[in-house]
Fold:
Amino acid sequence: MTTKKILGIDVSAHFVVCAIIENPIDDKLDYFRKNREEIFKISPNKAGIDKLLSLGVTHASLEPTGVHYSRIWAETLNANGIKLLWVGHCQLKAYRKSNRLPNKNDYADALALGCYGFEHCDKPEYFVKFDPFSISGNIRQLSLQLSHLKRVQSPIVNRVRQSLAFEFPEICEQNGKRSSDLPAPIWRYLAGKKISTQSRNKINKLLANSIGTGISDFTKQHAQRICDIQDQEVQIERQLTKAIGADMFAPYHKVFDKFGMGQRVRSYLLGTIFPLETYLDQNRKPIVELVRNKKGMGKSKRYRSLAAFKLALGHGLVEDSSGKSEKWIVGGSNLCRLALFQWEYTTIEPKRSRPNNDICKALGDFRDKLKANGVPIKLVRSRVITKAVEMLFRLLAKEI
Structure:
């Protein structure tokens, strides 16, 4: 019988807390109180890495959150043949609560992760299917970088426009979107970069007759920052185009084409759902189970694969009950949820620009019918996206 030695790792910004579990622990709270000194911190430096590798563990159990902080630890453990067990946040929360361990305590979290890993390390269904080292992990990382650049760019653009309102009001509302692979002409002009002679002459003429106070160094420097951000977006988009253009993604793109999805939406989805086989059974078919219904008078179907797929894309529900209170909250990827909302808003909602195919026509007709029946617009969008996710799964499962 192989000996198990599980390392529970709770990752923080500046250190990790580790708990080694080699034997079953019945009373976790009592163990925590009496053996807290055996749970220890490790710092992110060479001495810390050497100590981590000297522990001789077979598995490491950790959460797939705070990926930037956990990456160095996960890569080191993986490179040295230690199997990684990714524990979902909801599963850990429920496990910690059921064992009466303290909340918001790094040491208790490390112990809970170690014990959970020890008890379930031979049961893959108890862990999150998460591989930060795969091609989908790389796509997810690039997508997050693009999302970050978009988020930091917006307040800078808004601040520059505020300044231009009194410095050079004639151009403060000009289009600031990128043209092809270059930053927008307005930002390049303000930053002193090269633009077409025609555009430069036009803006110079406006500036000569402007009622504003003149372009400040503050505005010029911010324009340079916007140019740098948009240049970086181009570089990442090229990497992303190359990554999602791999042959293995061809069946996925064939389905995405039917929904009229753009590159960014595709990259967010691929970074989350690839490979689709993780949602299917050993025969590459969706998992459907028969369970006793709530009335106890028969059986009902439970579409397990579809439910897991919807949850991954941010359109599933997770239980959040406490005492007599029973409720369900939206779970899954916030990034995918937002990407799908933007896709619905720009592709399905406008009648004139809907793709002319059966899928988008069906979704558009469904949306128009809901709206005509007086359903609130937020609920209309949510139902359309949910229906689209269900259609997407069925078409992918048929195609893969």
Notes: The mean pLDDT is 90. Strands lie at 6-11, 16-21, 40-42, 59-62, 83-86, 288-292, 299-303, 316-319, 328-331. The CA atoms of residues 54 and 242 lie 39 Å apart. The chain has three domains: 6-126, 136-244, 251-399.
